[in-house]
Specification:
This is Sodium:solute symporter. It is a multi-pass membrane protein. The chain is mainly alpha-helical. It has a single domain, classed as Sodium/glucose cotransporter (Up-down Bundle), CATH 1.20.1730.10. Helix content is about 75%, strand content about 0%. The longest helix is centred in the middle third of the chain and has 50 residues, at about 150-195.
Length: about 475
């Protein structure tokens, strides 16, 4: 009963945070990017939680149970990706005010690239969000002994209440709580207690295979695949881009993302070590994905077990809410707003779009037992089709609209082709897709002329979006130094 009360208290806190966030979301900028007011702690917490979802937490422990320390490879790829966003992209994105991937391509290459990239980004964010909802349902099913459908609905309803109420403000406040819950649950409770119960590292080394403590035990090929898919994919992840502009300054945006990458790498190592300890304690698990809950129930007393389960919920809920608001922001900013103008720039329109995206995600979660295949397709196509054009848009002035369109089409086609030839989960689709995109993008760009008004756009010269309550910059200020908020 105590564990159930801890979970219910956690869900109640999420709803209360939604109410508080609703009071602060007065404009569409408040709703989409928290008014660009977050300081270092809140920003780093929010950036970390959107990275560390169910795959990083439950999946990270599962990989640790199977491969030992090298099981952190997946989370490490994510950590490097989020740090790279801060180091390479934060300055250009923060100064330009661009916070959606389709907006970046649309400003540089025009409407056709915006439409194509919007479809890919929405599909990716939606399907990964569906996976998180299914993960939430699986956790709540164990704790409350309800059907998976009921459990998924409870988790989804909680996410919708706080997300629709206050948008990014509510999501950020819940992210801070979730960050603290995950930090305490993983680093302070489950990791030390699981390693202690397993007899310490010395005993674990004696009982486990030698490659469990090798950084490459999972296989060089698998590590390379994770790097291609998650490092490059995360650099153009909509949720991550949107979080960048919640920072109150360019400095916070850059170094907060780098700090988040460091935290996530440590989180991945902790998950892998917990998984290795669970392998020593529970060597005969039928399903490695059960390692997280099984080792928690073995080493934790009543009450603390509920807190660690809440950490798994926090991982899924924070990622799900970030992904769903990312999909709804792309819809309102890059699809509906160009059609409807100012009418679709309101907080009300943003709330309606977010709720609609949430309903679609819930329907998919009911219809599918697993969305691994759909998520894999979406992630592969995202990286294969969009990474090269996005980097070109920001860093290569010679790139053209025709090159961007050719790159997206070539990358998508090659990725899908190799999924059919090599298999859905093979390493080749994303690698060959990115190569095809690069060849088409560079070749066609060199063979065509940049389009006036789009192809020559320099992200450094775009005016910074004003924070809520600040006057818009005068036209003459474009191209000037960063605003005082980023000094």
């Amino acid at each position: 009963m105590a564990d159930k009360l801890v979970i219910l208290l956690y869900l109640a806190v999420m709803i209360l945070a939604g109410y508080y966030g609703m009071r602060r979301s007065r404009t569409s900028e408040d709703f989409a990017i928290a008014g660009r007011r977050l300081g270092p702690f809140m920003y780093t917490s929010a950036m970390s939680t959107v990275v560390l979802g169910a795959a990083s937490t439950v999946g990270g422990v599962s990989l640790g149970w199977q491969y030992g320390v090298s099981g952190m490879a997946l989370v490490l790829a994510l950590a490097l990706g989020i740090a790279a966003i801060g180091f390479f992209f934060a300055g250009k994105l923060f100064r330009s005010g661009v916070y959606t991937v389709p907006d970046a391509l649309g400003r540089r290459f025009g409407g056709s690239s915006r439409v194509m990239s919007s479809a890919i980004v929405v599909f990716y964010t939606l399907m990964v969000g569906v996976g998180q909802i299914i993960g939430i349902g699986s956790v709540l099913t164990v704790v409350f002994d309800v059907t998976p459908t009921t459990a998924a609905f409870i988790g989804w309803a909680t996410i919708m209440v706080y997300s629709v109420a206050g948008g990014m403000w509510s999501i950020t406040l819940t992210d801070v709580v979730q960050f603290l819950v995950k930090t305490v649950g993983i680093f302070c409770l489950l990791l030390p207690l699981a390693v202690h119960e397993a007899g310490g590292f010395g005993t674990m080394r004696e009982e486990l295979p030698d490659d469990f403590f090798s950084p490459t035990g999972i296989g060089i090929g698998t590590i390379g695949a994770y790097f291609l898919l998650f490092f490059f994919g995360f650099m153009i992840d909509q949720g991550n881009w949107q979080r960048l502009l919640t920072a109150r300054s360019e400095r916070v945006a850059r170094w907060g993302a780098v700090a988040s990458g460091g935290y996530c790498a440590l989180y991945g190592l902790a998950g892998a070590l917990i998984g290795a300890a669970s392998r020593a304690l529970l060597p005969n698990l039928d399903n490695p994905d059960d390692a997280y809950a099984s080792v928690a129930s073995l080493v934790l007393p009543v009450g603390l077990f509920g807190l660690v389960i809440a950490a798994a919920l926090a991982a899924s809920m924070s990622t799900a809410s970030g992904l769903l608001i990312g999909a709804s922001t792309v819809l309102t900013n890059d699809v509906l707003r160009p059609l409807g103008g100012a009418r679709l720039a309101s907080v009300r329109a943003n709330r309606i779009a977010l709720f609609a995206v949430g309903l679609v995600a819930l329907a998919f979660s009911f219809a599918l037992d697993s969305v691994v295949g759909a998520v894999t397709v979406a992630a592969d196509v995202l990286a294969a089709a969009l990474l090269v054009p996005v980097v070109g848009a920001m860093f290569w002035k010679r790139s053209t609209t025709a090159g961007a369109v050719a790159g997206v089409l070539a990358g998508t086609a090659a990725c899908v082709l190799f999924m059919v030839v090599s298999g859905l989960y093979a390493n080749e689709p994303v690698a060959y897709g990115m190569l095809a995109c690069l060849v088409a993008f560079v070749g066609v760009s060199l063979a065509t002329r940049p389009d006036p008004g789009t192809g020559d756009l320099d992200f450094e010269d775009l005016p910074e979006l004003p924070a809520a309550g600040e006057p818009a910059p005068a036209p003459a200020a474009q191209g000037a130094a960063a605003s005082p908020r980023s000094a």
